[in-house]
Design a protein that fits this description.
2 copies of one chain form a homodimer.
Chain A (H helix, E strand, L loop, with lengths): L1 E4 L7 H14 L8 E3 L2 H7 L2 E3 L5 H8 L15 H13 L4 E6 L1 H16 L5 E6 L15 H22 L1 E7 L6 H4 L14 E3 L7 H15 L1 E7 L10 H10 L11 H14 L4 E5 L3 H4 L6 H20 L4 E8 L7 E6 L1 H4 L20 H11 L27
Parallel strand pairs in A: 1-2, 1-4, 4-5, 5-10, 6-8, 6-9, 7-8
Antiparallel strand pairs in A: 2-3, 10-11
Chain lengths: 407, 407
């Protein structure tokens, strides 16, 4: 068998890798050699393989607990020609099973390879093992990698809320997720007490209105005397234009400076708040790559499930003799959290992006619902406890975030 | 007694607060009421106090483990008039001991209050309890708050290095610290193996040359095939002008866009690398406020010492009957890490900023020395372990970061 990793890393992507390797080792005569290709499809094309039977269990376990892709990663969509080159490499080493860990682009790669294999009568079983911090794979309740990234976001916003509580004003946090708001929504898990932040959450699933944003901020300042905002990097205006681009175009005619760069969205929103509300202390941070690779901030459930999807892929390919598929996580019905794993056809997962369902977004479009919190909490796990002096706790009856519009 | 917090929060500032409160409680009849003022000097002027004897030990311990200033914070330098108003408040409640937790600005506030108290024959003992993630207080080996912030930075750069290892190119991380490079330098603790990042570190203690920076990056790319860079937000050109300002001014005559905002320095450097080296994958992140408030990423040594400086301040004021001072941490000589606490005069700590000593900076000015690593390691504690496949470890003889200039 051959296994590789692709796309953006996550905190638990190596759990899936090690899960698959250990399951293959346990399969006895089912699998002979276990190859790992370096930097995904690129490594297969270049013949850059390592022998994963040579690694000790101790090393495998240590790698499993390490963030980012231990085999290296790549962003490359294979052409038909690439596929033929891949098949040559696989035949050279008598490889019958191919596993690829990644998001929907990686699922597409597996799908292309599988279709080309069928077309070329190449006997190779192709499996996709899900991974994405964006939580945007179709056919899945959630994806490995999301729980840990969401944990990082919730912790970061929790700390930031405490910081804002101490010094006041408005704080804007820009969070990853271009098309799906799941990761930004996880900021809501930071909130444990009535007047905790985040007080507002803006997702790419809803058009962003600057006017309403300013009104929301003013209402939050009235209610809480301060305001913490979580914003997805992917928010757009009504026409679907990314906010920074929309704003720059609109403002260009007035001779204003173009906005660009990593902090552009946060700076733009901070500037809007300053100029339109007169609030002086307004700060913005863009969380960036830390969200997907910070060591030590891992959701135990996420780590466990990431391990399982790797194992399940090998069981499906070797044990059940299936030709192709992607492992999907489905949630069991009932109050107690539990999941089962299913093999779904590759085309169900490839390319398409799942977005936040309406039931997870507040009617005002500026917060998440209780349903989202119940959905996300078991994926992220208990956060480090934070406490206040009893004399400083706001007692009862405070306004609930996400009701700003009616205030 | 009265205690308050001031300046930027840290992960362990509440340890100092709780350390002082519990020491005062233990002092028996030495201290009567224990007041906490909200938002520092501002709360004293407004008479916003809470009674810290009313809080249970369980609450105090839970607050101690919570990041950011539990009493709220402020940035305000008291005028002579403010001081008289403060003294009136203190007299009203028969307060004889004043403790202020903060950095060098807060030490200055305590110093001003003490001098005014002497002038006005007001019987009040004034103590400064040190706190700053910048580690820039004079008269101290290091300061409470630094170890935990440094731990966050080291973890973040560790994860980022793994991310860069997977996807390649150049990654630039901008780290807090306007005048002192201690926090940026802590990025070096992320490096455990020969070819780990960070490969380059730039500190505000050395003038930054764009030409040399580009040369350094090219050399690192040659040696490692990738490059992770830690840069202090405070780097300046030869004349001491902050880099973004210097670059904007220099470029303005060519009609280029002005750089500003939270991501400006990272974007500027990323742009320089892209245009002058032709490397396509260049990314930048600015760590921002997370460095001082992320819950759960705490150095145990830092937490312990933060607790101790709070206790020591109360012991000095009440037990030893001293009139004023700041608690300083001194390192005991010898191989095994240990510290002792001393009371130093307020003027030694107030206002002045300590910078990285020359012995901690590599001769080339683009890395830290072994002496810095030995200095910082016990303050930060062991990082979460990260591992690689044995077949992917670079064996022996690789180049050492910080030697770029000679390469």
């Amino acid at each position: 068998m051959l296994i590789a990793q692709s796309g953006g890393p996550s905190m638990v992507i190596n759990q899936s890798l090690v899960g698959a390797v250990l399951a293959a080792r346990r399969s006895g005569s089912g699998v002979g050699k276990i190859y790992g290709a370096l930097h995904g499809i690129r490594g297969i094309l270049d013949g850059a393989f390592i022998d994963l039977r040579k690694e000790t269990t101790a090393t495998l376990e240590a790698v499993a607990a390490t963030p980012s892709s231990a085999l290296g990663s790549v962003r490359h969509k294979p052409s038909a020609e690439d596929c033929l080159a891949v098949f040559r490499r696989l035949r050279q080493r008598d490889i019958r099973y191919f596993f690829y860990i990644g998001g929907n682009d990686s699922a597409e790669t597996v799908h292309i390879l599988h279709e080309e294999a069928v077309k070329n009568e190449c006997d190779i079983r192709c499996f996709h093992i899900p991974k994405t911090i964006d939580n945007d794979l179709c056919g899945n309740d959630h994806t490995p990698g999301y729980g840990s990234a969401a944990r990082f976001v919730a912790c970061a916003v929790k700390g930031d809320d405490l910081d804002n509580r101490a010094l006041g004003g408005v704080k804007i946090d820009v969070i990853m997720g271009r098309n799906a708001g799941f990761l930004t929504a996880a900021a809501a898990l930071a909130r444990t007490e009535e007047d905790d932040g985040p007080h507002l959450i803006y997702l790419p699933e809803r058009p962003f209105s600057v006017t309403r944003f300013v009104r929301d901020i003013k209402a939050a300042m009235r209610d809480y005397g301060r305001c913490v905002v979580a914003v997805s990097e992917g928010i757009t205006d009504r026409r679907g234009t990314p906010l920074v681009a929309a704003f720059t175009r609109e403002k260009d005619s007035h001779g204003n400076v173009q906005l660009s760069g990593t902090g552009a969205l946060g700076d733009l929103l901070a500037n809007v708040v300053k100029t339109r509300t007169g609030i002086t202390r307004v700060r913005a941070d863009t969380f960036g790559y830390l969200q997907r690779s910070f060591p030590g901030v891992v959701s135990p459930t996420d780590a466990l499930e990431a391990r399982k999807v790797g194992e399940e892929a090998v069981l499906a390919a070797v044990g059940k003799n299936m030709a192709s598929g992607s492992i999907a996580i489905r949630r069991k019905p009932g109050k107690r959290y539990g999941v089962r794993f299913e093999v779904v056809p590759l085309h169900c997962v490839a390319k398409v992006t799942r977005r936040m369902p309406d039931a997870f977004i507040s009617p005002e479009g500026n917060y998440v619902t209780q349903a989202f919190l119940e959905y996300a909490r078991p994926l992220v796990g208990a956060l480090p406890p934070c406490a206040r002096f009893s004399q400083l706790r706001r007692c009862g009856g405070g306004p609930t975030p996400g009701k700003r519009k009616k205030a």
